[in-house]
Amino acid sequence: MGGVPRDSRPDSTLALLSEGYRFIGNGCARHRSDVFETRLLFRSTLCMSGAEAARMFYDSEHFQRRGAVPLRLRKTLFGMGGVQELDGEAHRSRKAMFMSLMSSDGIRRLCEQAEKHWRASIREWARKGRLVLLDEVQQLLCRVVCEWTGVPLPEAEVVQRTRELTALLDGAGGVGPRHWRARLMRMRSEVWLGRLVTRVRAGRHAAAEGSALRTVAEYRGPDGKRLGPRLAAVELLNVLRPIVAVARFVVFEALALHEHPESRARLLEEDDDEAYEHFVQEVRRSYPFMPFVVARVRRDFTWKGYHFPRGRRVLLDLYGTNHDARLWERPHEFRPERFRTWDGSPFSFIPQGGGDHHTGHRCAGEWSTIALMKVAARMLTRGMRYDVPPQDLRVSLSRIPAEPASRFVIANVRAVE
Ligand code: HEM
N or C, which end of the chain is more exposed by having fewer CB within 10 Å? Predict the structure, then answer.
C-alpha cells in the first residue's frame, strides 16, 4: 500500500500482548515513521502515534467508529451498541446525554460524595493492619458512583458489584480465563441494570431528577425512541465502570507520592488547587492506563503521502503520544510543574482521548476523573497518614491494564480530620 511502512511479521497480536503499551511506539521507532501497518487479530491495521496523527484521527471526515472495535472488546469492556460505536447525529445525541451529567454542579456533588466516602473508608482502614489500596479504592468508588448515579447498592453487595465492574476492564486486555470471566460479568451487570431501568420506567423505583439512572432511563434518541433495557444498561455501565476504574489512577497517585516524596512535600506546603491540578495531570500523563483507541477509515484519503484505504482499522497510540519527546521534554521524568506552561492542546496530552468532548469521542468523564483524582490526592496527603511496607511496586508495561505488581499495599493508617 502507498508508502506506509509495513511490519514483516505475518501477525503481530502476540507482539502486542508482550510489548503492551510500548507496541505502537516500538513499531514507529523501528520504521522511523508516525504510521506503520501491521496485522492484528489477522486484520491489516494502521498504527499511529503523535499529536499530528491524533489531530487527523479525531477528524470525523476521515474516520468512523462503526465496525471499529473488535468483538472481544465489545463483549467485555464496552458492551454492544454503546456510544463508543456511534457516528454522526446518533453519536452527538447520545454523547449529549453523557455530557449533561458532567455539569459543574454534577461534578461538585460527585466530589462531595467522594470525600464523604474517603473519610469513612480511612476510619475503616485505620482499624485494619494492612490493606491493598487498589481493592479498597475500587470498593470506595463503587459506593460513590452508585450513590451519584442513583443506583441502589446494599452494603452486602458492594464486594460483588465491585468485582463485576472491575472485571470488565481487567478482562478486556486479557486472554483465556481473564477474558471469559469479563464476558460473564458483563452479562450479569447488564441484567442487573437492565432490570433496574425497567423498574424506573414502570414507576416502581424512584430515580432523582438529573441522576444518571433517570437520565438514561428517560433518554430518547434522534428517532424519538427510548433505549431498550439492555442498551440502557450498557450506557449506565459506561458511567459506573469507568468511575470505579479511576481507582487505577488513584493508585498511581499513591505510587507517585511514594516515588517522588518532593511532590508530597510540595502539595503539603502549597495547598492550592493549581498544585493539585498539575500533580493529577502529570499522573495522567506519566502512568499507563488506556494504551490506544481504535477507529476505521471512513473513505479513502492520503495523509503525508500515505494512502489510507476505506475500511482499514486504525489505532492511535495514547501512551506513546503522552511520552513523545517532540511534545514533552524529558518525557519519562515525573515533573508536575511542566503543566504550568502546557499549551492545552487537545492532541498532545491524550490519556483519555483527544479532540472535543461534545462533538467527538473524547472521554465524557475526563473532568470527573480529574476532580475525583484531586479529592484522592488531598486525602492521600492531608486526610491520612500511612506506611508503605516493602513490596513489589513494579509496573509492567506488558500488562493491560497496568498496575503495580502488589496493587499497592499500605499499613498503619491514621486518619487526619
Ligand atoms: C471514552 C479513557 C474515565 C466515560 C473514553 C476514551 C478513553 C477513555 C481513552 C475513548 C476516547 C476515544 O474513543 O477517542 C478513560 C480513562 C478514565 C476514564 C483512562 C479513567 C478512569 C471515565 C469516566 C467516565 C467515562 C469517569 C464517566 C463518568 C466515557 C464515555 C466514553 C469514554 C461515555 C465514550 C465517549 C464517546 O465515545 O463519545 N474514555 N476514561 N470515562 N469515556 Fe472515559
Answer: C
